[in-house]
């Protein structure tokens, strides 16, 4: 049976409340709109059982916390061409080993919240994560030499969080990077020191993937 896309698998302690606020949220949201227009984030009856796909986040600087808080787009918001602040929530705590997430805000966090947390924990310089679905990049991942989590690792699980943390650590400190998720159809994650760095790395890789397809 095919895996159902976009379903929260972790234990969630979610409390309703006002939308999160951060200076960088407007930039993140602008990139989210760009990714929607490129169909890297969205909702399509012909893809993934018609469920929403793709999510974005920014980390908040609170030093000394082993799991830094971050703002992430809400689960199943992919159908919306543009989000306002009510499409985001604050993830204040993650424990991948316990498969546990604490969040506050008007929406529940993305099903990939543990993956976002794993990237931030693995490299403290990273402040943005963009999780998209790109058939072009995913299918060309090996040709492009793209790092990837294994085909046996499923999305939204502690195993994925562990694999992502190991992968980002292995890639080494930098201003950002991109990796594929072999066990998550079309799943690609870009990360960077800010949304613009992550976004440009992703778009640059998409261009390269399209070049591969045309050769």
From TrEMBL:
One of its GO terms (biological process) is monosaccharide metabolic process. Residues 33-213 form the Class II aldolase/adducin N-terminal domain. Signal peptide: none annotated. It comes from the Bacteria. This is Class II aldolase/adducin N-terminal domain-containing protein. It comes from Alkalilimnicola ehrlichii.
